[in-house]
Amino acid sequence: MARPLCSVVICSYNRRSLLERSIHCYNHARFPLDRLEIVLVDDQSEEDLLSVFNRLDPRIQTRYVRLRKEPGLWRDVGQILNVGIRIAEGANVACTHPEVMVGRDTLTAFCDNCTGWSYACSKVYYLKPAETDAIDTVPWKEEGPLAVKKLPTFYETVPGGNPDYEAAAVERSPDWRSWVFGGHSRAVWKEMGGFLVTNRWGSCDVLYSDRRRHLGMTDRCAQEPDTYVVHQWHPAPRDGQLAMKDASAVMRTLTGWKYPDVDHLW
């Protein structure tokens, strides 16, 4: 029996060079590519993302949406992803970013874990800036994104960094609730109503995790090595913005924050 269609929604503003590597990984996934749909929501990038997106294997169903906005306007990632979730046609819908390189078995594990009232996700290796610059010195195209473990500094700690996000700590963790690549069945997305939207960069991940907890949702995190995804480093979108991984600091910036009402997508 053929697998149900799986949709991956990617939101992007620029990051063309990072998207190029991600597209290669989708093309070489151990997943039936004719059962894969990728939706790219382009937040009016200054870089040409469509020519990179068109490099996807022709068996993959594709949808490209370019949003319009006033010059200089910043939009929350949740707002952009909600556009893609709404038009995705898959029975299971994952959301992610252009810098995220999926493992050979990421898509298979995601779909297998999208059962019931649950959140399906993958563990994440976070590359340091110098490692992202050096990624093409290892054979990731031939061996898959886990070849980044051959980078000489891969398991080194970063002074002053968050130890929970170091590679060794990620491997030891029994699950990974931070959203980098994850999602739900279409039915669960419809019930949740998509992402909540704020005007603070970095808060989307925190709100999403907190909301799942409040809703009593089961986390199903893939564990096998080839299900890990690789997050290529990128700078914050604006000077002075907090890093998304610093969840507690993000929450402190949300003055008077209260759990907002949900505007459903459907």
Q: How would you describe this protein?
A:
Strand 1, helix 1 and strand 2 form a beta-alpha-beta unit. The strands form two sheets. A seven-stranded mixed beta sheet has the order 3-2-1-4-8-6-9, sandwiched between helices. It has a three-stranded mixed beta sheet with strand order 5-10-7. The C terminus is likely disordered. It contains ten helices and ten strands. The protein starts with 5 loop residues before the first strand and ends in a 13-residue tail after the last helix. It has a single domain, classed as Spore Coat Polysaccharide Biosynthesis Protein SpsA, Chain A (Alpha-Beta Complex). The chain is globular and about 45 Å long. The chain is α/β, with parallel strands linked by helices and 266 residues long.
Q: What would a concise description of this structure say?
A:
This protein has 266 residues and is α/β, with parallel strands linked by helices.
User: Which fold name is given in CATH as the topology?
Assistant: Spore Coat Polysaccharide Biosynthesis Protein SpsA, Chain A
Radius of gyration (Å): 17 Å
- Count of the separate structural domains: 1
Trace the largest sheet across and list its strands: 3-2-1-4-8-6-9
CATH class: Alpha Beta
Number of helices: 10
Principal-axes geometry comes out as: globular
Helix amount: 25-40%
* The CATH fourth-level homologous superfamily: Spore Coat Polysaccharide Biosynthesis Protein SpsA, Chain A
Poorly predicted sequence stretches spanning 5 or more consecutive residues? 239-247, 253-257, 261-266
Question: Structural class of the helices, strands and pairings?
Answer: alpha/beta
Based on the structure given, which CATH architecture is correct?
Alpha-Beta Complex
Quick one: biggest sheet? 7 strands, mixed
